[in-house]
Structure formats: C-alpha cells, structure tokens
Q: What sequence folds into this?
C-alpha cells in the first residue's frame, strides 16, 4: 500500500502526518489527521 494518498488537489503523506494542497503544506491538529486516517482505512475495508 502506498504511503502517499492523492485526491483532487490534495496529497497526504501518511507516515509524516502531513497534508498538502497544490504542494503547500496545510497544518492539521493531530486529532484531525487521525480521523482522516481512519476514514482512509474504512474506505479500503469491504462491506460485509
């Protein structure tokens, strides 16, 4: 699995916990990034 996720104009570096928009880093609180990682995990989980 890739450690970088791209969607639209955004790029997320999962190990570093960093979000970029058009190559410019956007500051996120730790909790916000944890929630976004959870959503990413859930989107890869097949429904039962």
A:
């Amino acid at each position: 699995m890739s450690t970088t996720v791209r969607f639209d104009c955004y790029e997320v570096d999962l190990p570093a916990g960093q979000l970029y928009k058009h190559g410019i880093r956007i500051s996120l609180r730790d909790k916000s990034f944890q929630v976004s990682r959870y959503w990413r995990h859930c989107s890869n989980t097949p429904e039962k």
